[in-house]
Structure of 2-dehydro-3-deoxygalactonokinase:
Amino acid sequence: MADTQAFAAAIDWGTTNMRLWLLDGEGGVLAERSSGEGMRACMPDRFESVMEAHLAGLGAAPDLPVVVAGMAGARGGWREAAYLETPARLDALHLNAVCVDGAARDVRILPGVCQRERGRKDVMRGEETQLAGAVAGGLRSGLFCLPGTHSKWAKLEEGRLVSFTTFMTGELFALLNQHSILRDTLGEGAGDAASPAFRDAVDEMLADGAGLTGKLFSIRAAGLLADDAAPDAKARLSGLLIGAEIAAARQMLDNGATVTLIAGGAQGQAYEAALAAADIAYRTLDGSDLVRQGLFGTATALWPEGKAI
Amino acid sequence: MADTQAFAAAIDWGTTNMRLWLLDGEGGVLAERSSGEGMRACMPDRFESVMEAHLAGLGAAPDLPVVVAGMAGARGGWREAAYLETPARLDALHLNAVCVDGAARDVRILPGVCQRERGRKDVMRGEETQLAGAVAGGLRSGLFCLPGTHSKWAKLEEGRLVSFTTFMTGELFALLNQHSILRDTLGEGAGDAASPAFRDAVDEMLADGAGLTGKLFSIRAAGLLADDAAPDAKARLSGLLIGAEIAAARQMLDNGATVTLIAGGAQGQAYEAALAAADIAYRTLDGSDLVRQGLFGTATALWPEGKAI
């Protein structure tokens, strides 16, 4: 049984997925689970039963404490954990964790972070814990890129999240792909970032970042004029959207600084290719590792006496 | 009967609507009809019967000739009228009109215009006839803005359409309003351009045109942070999208030149407000008048002998 060594359980509970780890006193992974039982699937009141089923499946002791990051803490989620405001100390998320009263074990949900600046209002839930993991690993300052449905670009200074911007890149891709006049042209392709069409589109947006809404229709026109191969259309859309994001975000970047890209898989490769096209230096880290490290750091702060050491 | 004076019928046949006029030899309107029987409703083969029913309803003679602009000439429409390429003479659309063979009367469908420049591929159908109407009225050069689902900005030089760009402004508004995470925040408001939120959003985009995809989510965040009134959300979205369009399009504008805005109603007012915010001089013309004038000019070139004069 993993349980004899377990110090805490950590859960990254997003909108569409959840991931759970049993961690030992050094943050090592004793066991893990992931499932599609995200916040949406758990509404209105299945959070605890879903969590307990996974913990039981991993043989966790009934008194093992649990720390949770992500949308489970949203209003209308499991328990609302009010937003911290920027600038926010990322090594102190535990100070604003909410305790799930009435739960059968000690469960703490971490807060998200909000930014209230006029015209730049923004929110995140989950990414702050990835960033806390990066801070715990020694990356205390710099610009971080977290691609996704709602990509975040976050500026850290000495372990504090000072500002961030959400780009609706992934959602716009999905909307245009599923519901727009571009739908037929985009076809069934994957939007491969290795396609020349991706790189060309990124270059266009870097040269002329203002023109995104005036470039999307060119995908449709190219299809109608029938002199572009269909598989390139999706790569072009991806390149335009990611290129627009990077063209805007690089304004936040100090000259010659390195961006920390928190991504993996095909999405990570696309952002790496686009950052390279923009001559931006980057390092790539795995988001799942970081959120686990961020959750572990918070757990050690919440329960400094440890449990099983 | 209107027919005794009629010189030709003119039809603006779009994707979702059609409008038909009986015109006399000076281009005066003897009678008109409009309906929701756009290209979509007429596919695959109802174009002629729909047209004949409206002509009969107006008492048109069976041999009255008809000139048609718009999506009826698209591939898969009534008859495909191949695109002219930029630069395109707008007083010579009739030279590339296609005759609908097999129709019971003389029916000519005008071509659209395409632009084949790499990365700026674009197409229009219908707007070229509005522009032809403007040329016929003496506006032979300058920058024209035609707002819509797919807004067009067109550059004319001496009666030639030399280049144009389509902005997916209207479609993006609809997609975000109907299908995105912003949907709930946008509520049921109208997006009034008189709202300060509209003007603020336009100003933001004019100052920082590159950031559209990084500004959309602020609408959602403002709703979550609950310190912005809901009715402003739609005005903010409208302002961001129209502002992004104008921020990009003004790069095509010669210093101090006047934009010709072809628009009406609430949409026209929104563009007027945004152009004013950008310190761009404009004149506003009615699109329906222009397309009718463009169709009439083409009809007089197609049938110079007239009919009933």
Notes: The first helix of chain A runs from residue 39 to 42. The two ends of chain A are 16 Å apart (CA to CA).
